[in-house]
């Protein structure tokens, strides 16, 4: 095993980068990288590249102002926005979302989501389980981690699970990881510090010297490994491990300078200050994340998660919505159209949702408070039947009155689109007990 000793550079998970990069003994749950690659192959990699992109709207987006407007409700419920027609007759959504409205045939709206636990937490949107419910030792894994364990990587040099979110100040909102599956199946987070060390930007004499030593060490280890591969000391998984360390595939996927400027322009410009509040808390509306998600899937990611903005609007609900929702509209519409243009719409499922909805009644601060009884989600791609609305709420948007859809049904649909049978697929927990991925195992029939 080669251990790269040098200055400690902290990653987003506080693990020193040089300690992390141990070739042959990569510090991921105590397994070496060749062992991980071998285990992933034994778990059965799939030939087709099915994937999920989940956009998490932290704080609970107001369903009454986006997907389920109530124009005939009293003033204290109706709010300030008007519904507009979409390109699907009979379906209307908020005037703040004209781009999605113009391609509604490529989307489906679920207006009757139930089962929210009511916590300001990404846990249920990431795992499908309630945080307060009984959990296996180590906790439930997120969908991306479970997918990493069950399906393995599409490409040996690209992590199956990538999280593009900023770190948010309210820690429960941060995207969840592997639970009992361990670091082997944790999401890769290409934050600024990680990407800085994956590329050769801002090179100075010290960094160049450091990289030169690194390359020399890698060259020595590669020569030794190649001898081992020749004489049978090492197996093919060691070669794959070397490929992971030397490949530029992921770096290139996350380099937007390689994207067609016309395509990039459709997604909009990044302006971290557009929300004008809580800028230092990680609640930013960065448009390029939608494009990065598509590029990461193209490179080989099976699950990409991304948080967007901040929706906990107990005050000034309508002022915040006028800034945030049109940006979400542009980013989501560009992503879904891009997937269709590239012939990826049958394989890649897009899900946009938050942890719960908002109160029908507007409070004294012109805001909406927490409302776990019902909320909404937007879905696209995955070969699903789109151009429809599933479920409905009562005239005030208080509760589902037609076709309640449990949040676990959404997960069952995601797994179905990925080609995974949740009725028969289990993963052993830390005590060796097989655990089903979710409890409610029937996908949404209207979609599949």
Automatic annotation (TrEMBL):
Note the Gene3D superfamilies from the entry.
Answer: Alkaline Phosphatase, subunit A
Q: What is this protein called?
A: DUF1501 domain-containing protein
């Amino acid at each position: 095993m080669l251990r790269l000793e040098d200055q400690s550079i902290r990653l987003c998970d506080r693990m020193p980068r040089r300690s992390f990069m141990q070739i042959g003994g990569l510090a991921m749950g105590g397994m070496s990288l060749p062992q991980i690659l071998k285990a992933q192959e034994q778990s059965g990699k799939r030939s087709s590249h099915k994937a999920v992109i989940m956009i998490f709207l932290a704080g609970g987006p107001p369903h009454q102002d986006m997907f389920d407007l109530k124009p005939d409700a009293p003033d204290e419920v109706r709010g300030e926005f008007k519904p507009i027609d979409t390109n699907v007759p009979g379906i209307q959504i908020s005037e703040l979302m004209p781009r999605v409205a113009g391609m509604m045939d490529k989307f489906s709206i679920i207006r009757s989501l139930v089962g929210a636990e009511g916590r300001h937490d990404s846990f249920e949107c990431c795992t499908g389980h309630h945080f307060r419910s009984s959990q296996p030792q180590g906790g439930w894994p997120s969908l991306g981690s479970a997918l990493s364990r069950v399906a393995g990587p599409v490409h040996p040099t690209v992590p199956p699970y990538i999280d593009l979110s900023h770190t948010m100040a309210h820690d429960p909102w941060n995207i969840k990881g592997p639970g009992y599956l361990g670091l082997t199946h944790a999401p890769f987070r290409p934050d600024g510090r990680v990407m800085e060390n994956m590329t050769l930007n801002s090179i100075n004499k010290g960094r160049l010297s450091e990289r030169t030593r690194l390359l020399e060490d890698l060259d020595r280890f590669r020569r030794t490994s190649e001898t081992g591969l020749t004489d049978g000391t090492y197996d093919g998984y060691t070669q794959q491990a070397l490929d992971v360390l030397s490949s530029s595939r992921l770096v290139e996927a996350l380099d937007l300078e390689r994207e067609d400027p016309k395509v990039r322009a459709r997604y909009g410009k990044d302006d971290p200050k557009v929300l004008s509040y809580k800028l230092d808390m990680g609640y930013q509306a960065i448009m390029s994340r939608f494009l990065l998600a598509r590029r990461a899937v193209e490179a080989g990611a099976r699950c990409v998660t991304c948080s967007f903005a901040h929706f906990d609007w107990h005050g000034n609900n309508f002022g915040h919505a006028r800034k945030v929702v049109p940006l979400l509209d542009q980013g989501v519409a560009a992503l879904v159209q891009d997937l269709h243009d590239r012939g990826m719409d049958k394989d890649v499922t897009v899900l946009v949702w938050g942890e719960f909805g908002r109160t029908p009644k507007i409070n004294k601060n012109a805001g909406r408070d927490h409302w776990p009884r019902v909320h909404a989600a937007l879905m696209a791609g995955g070969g699903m039947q789109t151009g429809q609305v599933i479920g409905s709420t009562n005239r005030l948007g208080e509760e589902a009155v037609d076709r309640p859809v449990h949040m676990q049904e959404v997960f069952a649909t995601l797994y179905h689109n990925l080609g995974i049978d949740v009725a028969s697929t289990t993963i052993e927990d830390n005590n060796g007990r097989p655990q089903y991925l979710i409890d409610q195992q029937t996908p949404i029939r209207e979609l599949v």
